[in-house]
Amino acid sequence: MPSLRHIAGGIRSLFRKKRAERELDEELRGFMDMAAEEGMKQGRSQKDALRAVRLERGSVDGAKEVVRAAGWESFLETFWQDLSYGIRMLRKSPGFTAVVILTLGLGIGANTAIFSVVDAVMLRPLPFQNPNQLVVVWHTPPPKSFPGVRRFVVSPANYIDWRRQNDVFTAMSAIGIHRANLTGMTQPESVQQRLVSYDFFSMLGVLPTAGRAFTSVDDQPGHGSVAILNWAFCQAHFGAPKNALRKTIQLNDRAYTIVGVMPPSFDFPFQAQLWTPLAWTDKEHAVRGDHNYIVIARLKSGVNEAKAQADMNTISRRLAQQYPTEDAGWGALVVPLRDLLAGSIGPALLVLFGAVGFVLLIACANVANLLLTKALGRDKEMAIRAALGASRRRISRQVLSETALVSIAGGVAALLLAHFVVAAIGSPIAGKLPLSIEIGLNGWVLAFTFAICVLTAVIAGVAPAWHLTNTNVNESLKQSSGKTSADSRGRRARNSLVVSEVALSLVLLVGAGLTIETLYLLRQVNPGIDPHNVLTVPLAISQKRYPAVSQQTNFFQLALEHIRALPGVIGAAAVDSLPLTGGSTQPVQVEGQPPEAMADQPEAAVRVISPGYFSAMHISLMQGRDFTDADKAGAEPVVLVSESFARRFWPHENPIGRHVGLTFSSGPPRTVIGVVGDVKLYGLDVTQSFQTVYSPLLQNSNNPVMTVVVRTTTPPSSLIPAITSAVHQVDPQVPVTGVLTMDDIVDQSLSPQQLNMTLLAIFAGLALLLATIGIYGVQAYAVRHRVREIGIRLALGAQRRDILRLIIGQGLFLTGVGICGGLVLAVGLTRLMASQLYGVTATDPLTLAAVVVVLTLVALAACYVPARRAMKVDPTVALRYE
Q1: Are strands 254-261 and 226-229 parallel, antiparallel or unpaired?
Q2: pTM of the full predicted structure?
Q3: How far is CA 775 from CA 502, 793, 861, in A?
Q4: Can you tell me whether residue 809 is helix, strand or coil?
Q5: pLDDT in tens, 821-833
Q6: How many angstroms separate the CA atoms of 37 and 50, rounded?
Q7: 175, 377, 714, 802: which has the highest count of C-beta atoms within 10 A?
Q8: Is omega for the bond preceding 269 within 30 degrees of 0, making it cis?
Q9: Closest CA to 749 of 688, 834, 685
């Protein structure tokens, strides 16, 4: 076996050879430069000089090419050598390699999946011409009437004034969201109809793929009987677009001629199935107080949102002066169209994107820890490489090439994981957006995944590369074969990585805990109704088929009679807007309050109901009486009010017998005959109790769209066929679609929180698993390389429980440091998700304490197995351990 002196002599010889090669290279470059200068001095051009050099000393350019090719060949050769050697090293430890690839696959896959959604919703350009010029213009209501509300839909008259008076938009379109009954086909059905101005499609820069767009003539009163179809709707009913053109369809018993078909996937806004012109009448043009339309506009070239906002503020002040009764206090708000697309899911997506970023960092820390542990066993190998002339750069490249291999393999696994995750979460998210978008793996997502793989390879490979390039050659060569350099540098690096994993895991666990608590608290909220065993049946009738108010009310009365007669039905009633789904509001005039202009009148939710609604929904009657069939047209106009309404306007008085005027409803003020419990109208997470006025169906005009609620003694869904048959006995042309249980509606109202909670819980669980592996790995390594020390302790009289406390104590110390750092991070970062929480603060002490306990218990479990192994060390064997 060669001695250290022979090894040192060999190393010196290699160094001399390297120095000689460098000197030879310098002489060659010097000769080429001198030859070129000599040719230039003789009056030759540089080109001629080089040609002369080639003639005298062979081809200098050729020499350069040879040198250059040799350099590339050398680089490629060493590159492939690094990869081949890295593959062989990874194949030697298949279990280790599988764990590393799986860890990276989970971390990168989670990031790829969430980035796919973020890219589709928030980054990808909208599929319109110059989408950055498109904005939404909202009304801003008076704070007194709508406390806390910043965005409101627009009235027809205000839209027309905005369109005429603005100097900042090239086009502006109003959009009405409607459902219509389609008849004349195989079965009647309810379709999503969108009423738009004639230039809606040209403003977006998207024209029909077949036929034509609307013209200004189509938008005139009496000329709006044309329709443009969505591609999928056309395929389902007519096949090819050419088969649909010039065909006639019946919408609400009115004939519409099909003039165009839009391109595939265009269903803006909100899954539109067909579009028809606004074609407002003169009376509809003048409506200023009734707000029902979304307004989209295109900015002129060179105009930004700030300038557009200033122009709309000027117009709003002008309209408030011209129409003080209706427009006083109303303003306008200009926001990018992208805001309408992202909506309320934008902040949640950013929270999830931050969460998966933490998961990736934890995965990188875990892989770095595993690689560093493996690297500590390669000190002698790298020392020999360094002794034979390998530079630090060469050693670093070897280590990083191995990291890159597992990172690329992890990226492939990540794409497979991301495919399934996107398929699971893409549809629920896309269904909540106003525009159909494709959420999937595209070129940008693949580029993002590749970038993440490169970043991961660098992050995970830095620690082992740094350690191996800073190896003390003499010390490593003097070590015996049974030992590795488990020195303080490696131990500090591994401990630091574990502390980082614990800290990041705590942040994710706190975020998941807050969303779990939010969902739990929301499910404990009393919606004011009993949603169990209630079926909701939307019904819409044609005003052309039922033009008179008496005909409309007669239809719903007959339908309710047939439904109530069905076996298993214990109550049925009709309402214009279900709880938790929104609905209309309007100004009210309350007896006992000073008279005010309409713009200053308080707003209240107004619901039209049939007798029996409170009984069917189990809404408590606090005071007075319910509606009866005697509360019909011609009788004394009456209303019921919610408890919060009575408490606001008559806090110390009896509300029964008081009067309420509905500003948008004709007739005298209505007498309050009862008070009912508050109901959550706009979602379980809306904290304020919205004051509500209930008006009887028989005393209201123009109610063609109602929802029947049916309370049953049997599973509600089992009665859908019987209820459909009962409605068709009254009118077979009325479609019965969109039937849901009230429990389904409650679940839909909680679906954003449910999705956030599920994903955050999964990411937090993954982080906890990785942190557990990290703690276990560090402690297991420590035990394996402290066998001799443990044997000495035992030989000197230490008890096995002392060894248990030693190993567990060290693991808990690292966990405690990580918990302290994580708490600081959590207190700062969880504030960013405050808008996603309900009933709990971002620094909820109960959640923080629970997470600390969970992490501590997990750390105990991770430390216990190595500690048990340490307790079983035999001192006799340990003292001979190398």
Answers
A1: parallel
A2: 0.77
A3: 9, 23, 10
A4: helix
A5: 999 999 888 888 8
A6: 9
A7: 175
A8: yes
A9: 685
